Amino acid sequence: MRRSPLAVVLLLALIATFAGGATAFAMLGKTVWVDVDGHVSSVETYAGDVAGVLRKAGLVLGPHDTVAPDAHAPVHDGSKVIVRHGRLLHLSVDGQPRDVWVTALDVNGALDQLGLTDRGAWLSASRSLSIPRAGLSLALRLPQRVTVLVDGRRITRRTTAPTVESLLQQMHVRVRKLDHVSAPLVTYPRSGLVVTIDRISQRMVTRSIAIPFHTRHVKTSSLYVGQSQVQRAGRPGVRLNTYKLTWKNKHLVHQRLVRSRVRARPVAEIVEVGTKPKPRYAPAADGLNWAALANCESGGNPREVSSNGQYRGLYQFTIGVWHSVGGSGDPIDASANEQTYRAQLLYRRAGDSPWPVCGHYLYT
Known about the structure:
Layout: H1 5-28, E1 30-36, E2 39-45, H2 50-57, E3 66-68, E4 80-84, E5 87-93, E6 96-102, H3 107-114, E7 122-123, E8 136-141, E9 144-150, E10 153-159, H4 164-170, E11 180-181, E12 194-198, E13 200-211, E14 215-224, E15 228-232, E16 237-248, E17 251-264, E18 269-276, H5 290-298, H6 319-324, H7 336-350
Parallel strand pairs: 1-4, 5-8, 9-12, 14-18
Antiparallel strand pairs: 1-2, 3-4, 5-6, 7-8, 9-10, 11-12, 13-16, 15-18, 16-17
């Protein structure tokens, strides 16, 4: 059928209009790259912003998820959208538990997000370990500065040990059964903690203790009043005491008696005490000047003893001479009358020869 020139013109115009609209519509489509937890894929979309791209990709964000750029940001052909899903981290920091949400894909990134970047910290998992969508349990111990006082030394350490006991093991400090540690061994060693270890040692010792003997006095008429003699010597007994001694840092701090027994009983001393009246000695009136002799020998002192201890009393008897004229004991314990009486007996036997220096005073 033959068309008029006007119809041909209108048909061509209509075709041109449809062709232009299709070209413009085609120009609105774009390719956007979407990174979801490190997995990158392309999305063909006509959306003008990030939210539209997420809808196109079928991604619904939860309250702990993040997207970059912002959901309202415009997108262009070749734009990149990054989506990170939230991951629940059951975290224990220095023994204190807490739950935190992170969007990092591995442990190292999570620590960066939380500001826990100390490379000296102890971790229960590798820093490169991936964190699954289901979450992860992680223990972290930050370095602590702890001081230990032991065996006279002061040791300061930077440590990530979980307990005081572990710290001491790392320091090769042995804690014996009786030792006292100022902090419980299960304590977490936080900075500023000072742990003092007192070395405690105990030992059993047995000591011999003397048991004093008693003295028993027995009267006897064989001795004069004022005289006594030991009839049986006393002997101390022996008691064995066993003590538990406790030392703290090499200083004895406690002693406890745990056992006591008598090994040998004491033997009483028996002393005979004289009851016989002393005889009264009356020197004879022989015309000799005994007072002058005594004054020369001893200065008239009945208890005078020579410097060497050999000569004793008014007339400086030796013990042997005194006994030879019937005296007993020590001349200085006898009365002045008895000493003169014994001196007269000696004179009758030997004259004035026992007193070679002072004997002439007898005749003055």
